[in-house]
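User: We ran a pulldown and think these components assemble together. Before we commit to crystallization trials, I'd like a predicted model of the whole complex to look at. Sequences follow.
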Amino acid sequence: MPKIKPINENYKGPLKKFITRKFYLNTHMTITDNTHLEIENVQNIVEYNDVYIKLKTSNLTVMIWGENLSVNDYGADGIVINGEFSSIEFER
Amino acid sequence: MLDHLRGVIEFTIVTDSPEEFINTIRKSSVSARNLRLENGFLTGQCYGFDKKTLLKIAALHHAEFIETARYGFVFTAAKYRRRYGIIAGVAAALVMVFFLSNITMKINIYGNENMSDAEVLSVLDDAGIRIGSYLPNISLAAVERDIVSNVRDVAWAGIKRSGPIVSVEISEMTKKPELTPTNRPCNIVSAKNAQIVKIKSVPMGMLIPMLGDTVREGDILVSGVITGKLGNTYYVHAMGDITGRYSEKITFNESFTHRRLDYEDKFTRRSLRIFGFNIPLTPAVNTYENAEVNEEVSYFNILTLNLPIGIVNTEIRPYEVTEEILTPEAANTLLLEKTKRYEENFYLDEGVTIISKDIVYKPVEGGLSINVSYVLEANIAETQYIYVKNHR
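Assistant: Here's a predicted model for the assembly, 484 residues in total across the polymer chains.
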């Protein structure tokens, strides 16, 4: 069996960034006013209630604060959040 | 609109961990909307056909699925699914609409001036178009051809179908009266290089050449410019019937290799066309190497709307190509037939008399050629208008 040479640790970060960018796997967000937010490449909803939603995407954790928050899921990797947002925070 | 057709369910989920429930929904094929947490319950909407999957997910999470409302056509239709009378009525109505859209209910005829409507209707009746006839079975193009070939007075026929109404447009042959303006001054000139052999009549104008004279093409035979006794000039519409004798040379060729097409009887194949795909209704397939194929599609109609379903009538006329090697004698016979046909079409039908003809045979590469020198007699008078200012 030929031994596969591991990728040098120095290249891992830039390579991941390159692949993420080229294959459109980064977090793509479209926000309209403070009432409508479309997020693509959502991996998981970590926490959810009508004032706070915490999402994990491919490279970020997004926290949305607001009122009357609702989630629309149309079956793809993206979700649509409606409501009245007061703040959006990002965490790497 | 589409939501109403599909049917939408509003639901409430009683669960301890709404996040996990939503994540499972996201991983499944369910398309959920308006998911929100109200008083500790997860509410939302989904399509009717996703309900089973949602129930499974709810069971997986030990959650309770409560359907709070439902709306849409599928649910309304499901309510009436046991009302067989309504279903039968709707089906019967659809069948009636479909059937009545494809049978002839009315025939409109346009463009007939000399022919009566009854005559046109009787011709259409012979071709199969009558009130009550089933239209997809009839090839309208074939009927158009039949009308033109069978009715002498019809020059062109167009048949258009709009649902159950058939519109027939006919263009009749009208013989225009030959207009001969007798007040317009003109000369009579020779149409050929010829020798004048007969002067039948000169009702108007001044005859220039005499009997036996030779004239060139374009020479004036009867002049429309006349000088009076007092020296004044006036113009008339010259007329005359003058016969001239002239010669013409025609060459005919015939190759020794002759391609003959032997046609067999034509037949029709039918197939059902659904969204562009043809499903044969007759088992035989066109396997002929050479055939003239004429295809026509009659689409089914519902209330003048063309459906993407129709009957394709394919008219096939197979033929075989035979390469024949002709003997010089056979080629000669064919050449003489060609000559005869030419004489009939261009001389005898046009009132030209053949005085004599001289045939010279000439062998060419791969065939035979003949030069025919004719001496002909015909009316050589041709009208040429004189353009004068302020003619009275």
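The helical segments of chain B are 2-6, 18-27, 51-60, 73-79, 84-101, 117-127, 140-150, 328-348. That may be worth checking against your pulldown data before setting up trials.

User: Thanks, that helps.
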